[in-house]
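Wed. Picked up where I left off yesterday with DUF8083 domain-containing protein. The coffee machine is broken again, so keeping this brief.
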Amino acid sequence: MAQVSGTNRKALPPTSYLRIFEPLRAFSEADQAVALTTGRISREVLEDATAAAALKRLTRPLSDPFPHLHLESFRKLVTTTWDGTVNTLYCPDQLATRTILASEQLDGSMRPQLLELLIPSAAREANALRVDRQRFTDDVAHLHTRTATWGVPFGWLILVHEDDEVDVIEDGDDLLASRIYTPMHQALDRVRYAAATLAIHAPEMDLLDELAALSEWLQLFDAESVVELDYGRIAALVWPDDSPHDLRLGIESLAESDMTGAAASYRRLSSRWLAVRQLARAN
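Structure written out below (tokens, as returned):
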């Protein structure tokens, strides 16, 4: 359990992240050099710097959420296997690409007048001139980070178990983040089992499509990768979180045709996240 200062992170909307950390060999030589350099920075120092940069972009006098002179950075994760082997894995931030994708999502879910106020056409056009199109294409095809605001998608929770490795980050009595780590092969086994069970017993559930897409995404990465579910500031609202356990029980109940057990698991899951959804609507 780490104690850090997280003033900047507390000022941002609660956001969760699903990240893939890959071995160094999975990256180009140029990216390997960047990973080795930026990987020397403490994880929490990097998170605070990332949050500070986001706040700076969001509070510019002229609305423009895109990064300007942004240099790529890599998060580093050191793991130890059952036989004592130490592995160092890396996850690129890919911020420039992720901000473009986020703005495109808003484009399809927001009134044009409001979108123009938040992300003016001039800002988008200027950003398009700054972007390396080949890098953007490569990043989209191999995006290492998924993001969700005011919640954790249930599909992500399928990937982790309560007995997986956990890292809890605190600032005094304030919880900044809880991170769960799962080896890629286990994450794939879990999502495939859940998808197969839903396909047989509950094919009408929207979660099935989410799991199918999640499985395809995970298969893009090195087999020795590690999946990180980072609750971020959402952790302050739900941690310790029994959702992964309830989801697993619900799916196992479906596999055994125990509809009562499945319904009970879903009720526990829904009631736990109801307060978070209400806060999201209030904001």
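Quick read: Residues 67 and 96 are 6 Å apart (CA to CA).
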